[in-house]
Amino acid sequence: MGCRGRGLSLFNRLRVQCGREFDRLPADGLHVRSANVTIMHLVTSDMSEVRCRALEAVWRGVGEGHARTIMQLGAGPGPSVDAPVAARVHVPVALSGVRRAALRRVLARCGAGGEPGVIILHAWTAAAAEWGLTLAATHRPVVLEVDAGDKLEPIARWAARSTLSLVCRSATTRARLLGLGLPAARCALVRSAVELAPEDGGRRAAARERLGLAAGDVAVAVLPPATRGSGAYVGAWAALLLEKVRPEVRVMLPEGGREAARVRRLVQACRHEWMACHVSRVMAVADLVCAADLGVYLPAGDAPQESVLAAMAAECPLVVSDVPAMRELLTAGRSAWFCGANDPEAAARCMLRALECDEQSRRQAAEARGVA
């Protein structure tokens, strides 16, 4: 699967995993072997907690030979990232020409405006990608990261008319882009970095204590992000159904965004507040899956994979929906439990089976860690 440790930057992972594919780009495309590389990380206020942690990992992994800068784009508070934000760019109107002029001024101030070489605009959200695409015609080459939640149709159209190259986090996303007519050489698969940490009982105990879990509690973690696309609501609903047969179950629910508020209202309507623990966005996903006895991720279609990769690396048993985005990472009955999407009752039965067949779940989790 190609998951790498935190020490690899986006640039290095492009070079290692894409090598010859990027060498075949046209003369005005991306050449990762250029010595003069500037990496511009573009972030916006709607950046998820998973993405924030991924940016921190990439930031720590960038070599000293590459210039790097973080730019916050648009209005609103900045994302919670443990890395210095060098510039903030905001314009009162959402016009591509105005955005392009503002970005060019910031690039010039950062010393990357007119230098030759590779300028990698690494957009971490769909909104940041819209900003970055305004420079596709004036700065070459440009790399944009696309994920499951991004609107792929306009990105594919812009890429077809420019020197833009795309980095996909999942094979499902890349297949969708290829289906829209994007050349394979302009669209690379680079999976998110995960922490393949050694088994640490002390870390698990500390994480469970932080979550307020008792020794006999069974922690079921609904994996982030809490969005409609990730199936967080269905996962929470299914986990709450376990209360009748497994009263020791405690449900870990991700915070952040409207979907998390919707999940909170569901818990209150069921009067199951005693059963639920709303996990702050401050808590790292790696700690959450380390504390969990079972991870649940039930997207109905293409969805971000970072939290699933973290659970695989932490050897946390998984219940996932039977969709292409999950099948490209996991195998039903071998490395995870699979169930239908948008069906909380079927998901609850699958979760109950995973908890009852503890030995089989552990074997599957070990298999998943081996894949990671």
Q: Can you walk me through this structure?
A:
The protein is an alpha/beta fold and 372 residues long. The strands form three sheets. The protein has a six-stranded parallel beta sheet with strand order 10-9-8-11-12-13, sandwiched between helices. It has a four-stranded parallel beta sheet with strand order 3-2-1-4. The protein contains 14 helices and 13 strands. The radius of gyration is 21 Å and the shape is globular. It starts with 9 loop residues before the first helix and ends with a helix.
What brief labels describe this structure?
372 residues, alpha/beta, 4-stranded parallel sheet, 14 helices, disordered N terminus
Helices, strands, pairings?
Elements: H1 10-23, E1 37-43, H2 49-61, E2 67-73, E3 87-89, H3 96-109, E4 118-123, H4 126-132, E5 142-146, H5 152-160, E6 164-168, H6 171-179, E7 187-189, H7 201-210, E8 218-222, H8 232-240, E9 249-254, H9 258-270, E10 276-279, H10 285-291, E11 294-297, H11 306-313, E12 318-321, H12 324-327, E13 337-339, H13 344-356, H14 358-371
